[in-house]
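help with these tokens:
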Amino acid sequence: MNTTYAPLAISRERGVERVVTGQATHDGAGVKLTRVLTGDLQHRLDPFLMLDAFGTDNPGDYIGGFPDHPHRGFETVTYMIAGRMRHRDSAGHEGLLTNGGVQWMTAGRGVIHSEMPEQEDGRMEGFQLWLNLAAQDKMQPAGYRDIPSGEIPELNIPGVTTRVIAGASHGVQGAMRRERTEPLILDIHLDAQTAFEQPLPEAHNAFVYVYRGALKISGRVVDAQRMAILDNPPASDGVVLRALDAPTRALLIAGRPLHEPIMQYGPFVMNTREQLTQAVHDYQSGRLAA
């Protein structure tokens, strides 16, 4: 999608509060990944709970996949850069995630699903973001949507292509919208020495994950495989991302905080300890996804 683009006058751009290096870990049946947004950042980056980045050419790092496992109380957004992953869940949904596509799953009151590679060699690369649900929405029925690459709207301007997964950018409406958390999820591709401006509501929490090249944000350099947590100065109206001397790709993610208690036990994210206990009991008794 192309649209007329006029550079915005960001009068007070956000700066970088801190730069975070992810933690190497593994999940599922031994899949190697980097946990970029960790549990200690959940309140700071509310409504986002987790961001994992994965990328490898070694099948041994991903071949085990993620066999059946439960979730309750939040949404998962999986964005594939390269590779093929099959989703199946207890609600009867099934989909194949391929290059450039997104799977958006709402766990709601409960779902049991698997994510398994449909390749035995080649590169697998992508991200999984966990987005919290408001207390009043945590027990809604589970939902699922496959978004093929061709259905993700793009903003194309000289030197920059922005894939609008959720929210809106310069009049381009993204593939998904959520009223309570208002997530903005952009995959931004910048040529060397180009810049991109994005308005952000003052109260929204925001961060940038650079996965190719390097960015300068309000004078601060953010290298590849680093997450920049953006500050929230009063009267701020956006962020300006400037690529340095190489082509750069980055995720810009922002959302309206829920300001609700966050209680997590593994794949369950609720508001109280009693709700967590009930989630575990429902899972053990086979009633989580009933």
About this structure: The chain has one helix and 26 strands. The first strand starts at residue 16 and ends at 21. The chain has a mean pLDDT of 94. The CA atoms of residues 189 and 198 lie 14 Å apart.
